Amino acid sequence: MGMTLIILACALNTYASWWPFLVVLFYMISPIPTMIAKRFSDGSGSGNSCMENAIFLTMGIVVSSFALPIVLARVPVIQWGACYLTLAGNIVVYSTLLGFFLTFDSDDSDYNMW
Fold this sequence. Notes:
The chain has helices at about 1-10, 25-30, 30-40, 50-75, 80-105. It is an all-alpha fold.
C-alpha cells in the first residue's frame, strides 16, 4: 500500500516527476543499522551503546525520508500533492516495518502456541 502511494506520487499525470521515488532508498537502508547492532549485541537486557547508536542512525534515516519530499516541494521540484502522497506512503511503510520488527524480532516470546 505504501509503495502504491509512492508510485502514484510519481506517475500521475498531474505530478509527472519521479523525484519522490528516492525515498525508496531510505526504505532499504533504514533497517540496516539496527540489524547490524542486533548482530553485535551482548544479549543482556542492559543498555547497549552500539544499539543506541544504531537506533539514532535509524531515526536519522527515517526523519530524512520524511524531510526529503517536504524539501523537494518547498523548492518547486515536485508538487505538494506528490509530497502528501509520499508522506502518506512513508507512514504506511514505516508502520509496517515497525510492526514486523516488534512482532517477529522479540527473542523472549514462544511462537509454539501459534
